[in-house]
Design goal:
The protein is mainly beta and about 425 residues long. The chain has helices spanning about 5-20, 140-150, and strands at about 25-30, 35-45, 45-50, 60, 65-70, 75-80, 85-90, 95-100, 105-110, 115-120, 180-195, 195-210, 215-230, 235-240, 245-250, 260-270, 290-300, 305-315, 320, 325, 330-340, 345-355, 360, 365, 375-385, 390-400, 405-415. It is elongated.
């Protein structure tokens, strides 16, 4: 009997622990097999807003939800202004069920719903289907709600599709049909091979357009400044780079263990300022040749982590310059890495990239440019701003002598 008080205290502490756990819990199963748990903020006919332990809010479009379970009492507000409370039960995409000790079990069409939120005891709700005299939110409350909606524009917020993959916007499909993303970027890279130091500053403007949910087009226009310092001279050039046109298509959507599979095709048009590759005093800005790149990319989400990787092959055409025939080497490219969402606005990502470039040829023989294999590691911070703006600083380190020692870049994009 002397052990009874300690045992009672233990049970009392367990009871306190259990009752202190979050009660407004929701479990969501997505169509791709992922599961998300958190606190329900709002459920509408179009989206479900959930607060998780690592984010303030996640916006999930209902079209990606397979089923959901709410473990607590909810407040339902209909488009007619009627407000009901009870236990929520998901039935299908057309109807959900509300169970209450006051009016029993009722099936409600999703089309009749304004929103569902967690029920709070202090709220005065009407527990009847056709109750009258309901207090509607004041104008001030409506304004506050609008402000909250504006704030939901983070890495794990809007846009709803693939909301945690914004740092992969160059290699996967993220835009909605008819949506446009404009981006400007600046980069500075430096490479030192004694006794020579090479620098290049690039200004890039690009547009991406969503044709449909699975396909995007892109256009990239660069302007470059390059400099090379040696013990004997200083060479400096500036001019246009080659225009790039790209096409991406989502062939397989992520489901269960299966990742997104994206195909990519891009063409570099020889529209930049010409150079003489056989002239040691000529700096290559745009190149005099066409190039075609085709590849495949895989993206797998394990919220809040995204894993990715890709392989591609680049073909470069030959060209004539000063009665000489040049053939720049083709290449194989590969990359892999991961991204991690810190909160609803910020994500960090790291990527290893490598390329094997075949030997270039001059008049059918090996040219002054031998085969080389640059390798690098890129780290980036992606920061989602309100009104669909995004800013992304990044730093790339060369891992061998064939790659630039370092590349510092900053990109700013806007969707409309």
């Amino acid at each position: 009997m002397q052990d009874s008080p300690p045992i009672k205290r233990i049970f009392f502490l367990i009871f306190l622990f259990l009752t202190s756990l979050p009660v407004f819990a929701i479990q969501i199963e997505l169509k791709n097999g992922d599961q998300i748990s958190g606190v329900l903020q709002k459920l509408t006919p179009n989206e479900c807003i959930v607060s998780t332990s690592y984010n303030s809010n996640i916006n999930l479009p209902n079209q990606y939800i397979n089923t959901l379970k709410i473990n607590n009492k909810v407040l339902v507000e209909l488009k007619t202004g009627e407000r009901l409370s009870g236990e929520f039960k998901f039935k299908n995409k057309q109807v959900f069920q509300l169970i209450s000790p006051y009016f029993g079990s009722v099936n409600i069409n999703w089309d009749e719903l304004l929103y569902i939120s967690t029920y709070k005891n202090e709220e005065k709700t009407i527990l009847a289907l056709h109750a009258k005299g309901i207090d509607t939110p004041s104008e001030k409350e409506k304004e506050k709600e609008k402000e909250k909606e504006k704030e939901k524009t983070g890495i794990l917020g809007n846009p709803p599709e693939n909301y945690h993959q914004l740092f992969l916007r160059q290699s996967t499909v993220l835009l909605q049909p008819g949506q446009i993303e404009a981006e400007i970027a600046i980069s500075y890279d430096r490479q030192q091979l004694i006794p020579q130091v090479s620098r290049q500053v690039g200004f890039f403007s690009s547009l991406m357009y969503g044709i449909n949910r699975y396909t995007e087009l892109s256009l990239n226009i660069p302007y470059l400044w390059a400099q090379r310092d040696t013990a004997d001279n200083n060479i400096e050039e500036k001019g246009r780079g080659n225009i790039g046109i790209g096409f991406k298509h989502l062939f397989i959507q992520e489901k269960g263990w299966q990742p997104d599979i994206i195909g990519q095709l891009s063409i570099s048009v020889p529209s930049g300022d010409k150079s003489n590759p056989n002239d040691p005093k000529s700096l290559i800005l745009g190149g005099n040749y066409w190039s075609v790149s085709t590849g495949i990319h895989a993206v797998k989400s394990h919220d809040p982590v995204v894993l990715f990787g890709g392989l591609s092959y680049v073909y470069r055409s030959s060209f004539n310059n000063h009665e000489q025939h040049f053939k720049v080497g083709n290449s194989f490219r590969y990359n892999f890495g991961l991204g991690f969402a810190i909160n609803n606005r910020i994500s960090l990502s790291g990527q290893f990239s490598g390329e094997f470039i075949e030997k270039s040829k001059l008049n059918g023989k090996e040219s002054v440019y031998p085969a080389f294999e640059p390798m690098s590691f890129r780290s980036a911070l992606t920061y989602r701003l309100p009104d669909d703006y995004l800013i992304e600083p990044s730093l790339t380190f060369g891992l061998n002598d064939d790659a630039p020692d370092s590349v510092l870049s900053l990109a700013i994009s806007h969707r409309f």
